[in-house]
Amino acid sequence: MRVAKVWIEHPVLQLDQVYSYDALQLPAEKGKRVIVDFNGRQIVGFVDEVAEVEDPAKTLAKGRPLKPILAVLDENALITPELFDLAKWMAKDTLSPVISCFQAMLPSKLKPKSSNQKIKMEQIAVYVADHPHLTPRQKEVLDWLKQQGPTGLSLWRKQSPAITRTLEKLGCVRLDSRTVKASVPQAAQAEAFLPLNADQQRVVHEIETSSKAVMLLHGVTGSGKTEVYLHLARQVLNQGKQVLILVPEISLTPQMVARVKGRFPTEVAIYHSALNNQQKYEQYCRVFEKQASIVVGTRSAVFMPFDHLGLIILDEEHDSSYKQDSLPQYHCRDIAIHRAQYFGCKVILGSATPSLESYARALKGVYGLTELKERVNRQLPVCTVVDMKNQSRSQSGILSDELKQKIAERLDRKEQVILLLNRRGYSPLIKCGQCGETLQCPHCDVALSYHKSINKMKCHLCGSEYPLITVCPKCGSRTFAAPGYGTQKLEEEVARLFPQARILRMDADTTSRKQAHQTLLEQFGHHEADILVGTQMIAKGLDYPQVTLVGILNADAGTARPDFRSVEMTFDLIMQAAGRSGRSSTPGEVIIQAFDPNHFAVAAGSQQDYSGFFYQEMQYRHLGGYPPYTYLIALTFSDSHPERPKQSAQWFAQALRQTDAFKVLGPSDLFKLQDRYRSRLVLKSKNLDQMKAVLSQVLEEYRSQRAQAHLSIDVNPLILD
Ligand code: ADP
Ligand code: ZN
Ligand code: ZN
Predict the structure, then answer these.
(1) Using one digit for the tens of pLDDT, what is the confidence trace for 124-151?
(2) What is the mean pLDDT of residues 99-116?
(3) Distance, CA 437 to ligand 3 centroid (Å)?
(4) What are phi and psi of 55, to 5 degrees?
(5) Which residues are found with C-beta within 5 Å of the ion, ligand 3?
(6) What radius of gyration, in Å, describes the C-alpha atoms of the chain?
(7) Is 52 within 8 Å of 289 (Cβ atoms)?
(8) What band does 223 get if pLDDT is binned at 50, 70 and 90?
(9) Which of 204, 372, 376 to mutate to test the pocket of ligand 1 (most atoms within 8 A of CB)?
(10) What is the rounded CA–CA span in Å between residue 364 and residue 226?
């Protein structure tokens, strides 16, 4: 008997094991999706091992014969054996169910999920055989198909509806169906490779000759890292191997994509979250069928089905979007390094502000380190910090005099300006003018932001919108204040001060439509606007030669967050935003507005001093026992019942504290999110493997119990606020 082990996702139960099914009748094979019956429910599963089993005892489940597989959904395995093993490794690494890892890997059309989507199919005509008694015209049409190969039905019919039908009847041609072929991507404008400067050549040489598999390329903004990536990619492609280039966010992708396509016109696959499901599926197939040898993409592109990968580049390696914040909570960097080991290829981690973890590893020699200390144009922008405490109260308090004056100068000189404010909406809260009550989201326990353009209040956590209220629910007053400011108010203020300026705003509210990012960036790139206002979206990667002034507003606001990484993130944001200024021949300037100008993240950021920041922040991490000196695992318990998360967390903490092998912090209550109450434990240790091993045991016991809160596990969490 043939027995298939099948991974399944149950809509309710959190299962993490294979189930045996009878695979005698159908061609179930490893890596294909199947439909099986599970407790009377038809569920999509993913096939693991299939084996001949002689022992009749093993063909029984609980004394009954194995149920048959009901249908096989795929003609061929969806993933390579390497990806199959990767999913299992990833499940252990992130303490997630194996099936969730398969799902994370595959484009949604192929995900083994209970709610399955259809793949678009097209009908085709396929040549079968010649026939002795054909008219010359019939023979002509048949020969055409023979030459053409399998052809879409409408094109086939166009040859002659009557003749094509006759040929089918005679058995010379058969109709079949296939998945819709990938749309051929448009070629970009061809671009020449720039000759590398001496620094870039040194870096390429260091990378190529290093014995380390993982190389950290620490290069200041505008030092020509992208050019280095492209040269390395060309070498690898010339050896007939594949290249993967990972970028953090879709807003960054247009420029990187244009550059890569310009250099390597025909063979680029693009993979990011803004593609629709069919497009993602097509790109996945292009790599599977070896039609594309370079992939440029965001986080999930790390799972593309390569078979002879020669290089992985992870640009802006410090960026938090490389971490997935839902199950399975993997980090793209870990997956990239693991896959590179399998292929024996190099990983380049590039950044102007490497994560503390990566830089510490490079200093220890775990990774190789190579650096570009100067910009290609040899000039870093001049930064000025403005103390906002000293700005006179009579002003709106948004733009300092210094910044206003510099903006006016840029407008006169027809240069461009970027203004960064990491908060969207009009104002971050609405307050009763009488009693001071702030309006909160009823689902999330956080303040609602005011959005003037739609005249509504919005929750930035769950996205729900509410009409403005006119009467305070607490005291009945009718006066409200909207203190503070977000990008909408900033845009309004800039328009008021500079009525002649053309202004674009880029934040989550202006980019929700498809292609909106690209349109905005193109407009700014073609100098159809003078000032770009936006959130952290505009801080990274953009390379616009006309930008000679960057203003960073409320630069130190992030340091108030309780998260242990908030200072690092503040520093990164200042460095990255400053890096957008003066990238071409005209020197750039940066104005940093802060309430605490002496904060070391602001001071080091304004001096573009990465290593100064690194050593200082490492001291704090050391004192607090935080990464990279320790490893953390966050356990978040959530439930619609207010008491249950805490009770579950207490049970779990008790079970973990039996061991004494590591620290268990908490439980601490988190704010309610989308009507779910939450409680969190944080585990801390220098030995991650041991911590995971103990946790897995307790987890098994936890999952076997009833009425427990939902538990999500985050190994090496990025954010803990
Ligand atoms: P980074 O990725 O480090 O921020 P980029 O690769 O975007 O830097 O390079 C910054 C600017 O310098 C770009 O406009 C790029 O075209 C230009 N540049 C990079 N390398 C060279 C080179 N070797 N010769 C001339 N210009 C270069
Ligand atoms: Zn009130
Ligand atoms: Zn909410």
Answers:
(1) 898 999 998 899 999 999 999 998 888 8
(2) 79
(3) 17
(4) -65, 110
(5) 441, 443-444, 459, 461-462
(6) 29
(7) no
(8) very high
(9) 376
(10) 26
Model-level pTM greater than 0.85?
yes
- CA of residue 99 relative to chain centroid, distance: 20
Burial level of 25, CB count in 10 A (0-12/13-18/19+)?
A: exposed
Half-sphere exposure of residue 266: CA atoms within 13 angstroms, side-chain side: 3
Residue 528 CA, ligand 2 centroid: distance in Å: 45
Most confident of 156-165, 363-372, 444-453: 363-372
Sign for the CA dihedral angle at 660, 663, 668, 672 comes to: negative
Candidate from 46-60, 195-209, 405-419, 677-691 with smallest mean pLDDT? 46-60
At residue 603, the 3 state secondary structure works out as helix
What is the average pLDDT value for the chain, to the nearest integer? 90
Separation of alpha carbons 43 and 38, rounded Å:
7
Comparing 116 with 303, the larger pLDDT belongs to: 303
Which residue's CA lies nearest to atom 15 of ligand 1?
224
Is the pLDDT at 184 greater than 50? The verdict is no
Side by side, the strands of the sheet bearing 294-297 are 268-271, 294-297, 242-246, 309-315, 346-351, 214-219, 368-372
Q: How far is the CA of 225 from the centre of ligand 1 (A)?
A: 7
Ligand 1: residue whose CA is nearest its atom 17 = 224
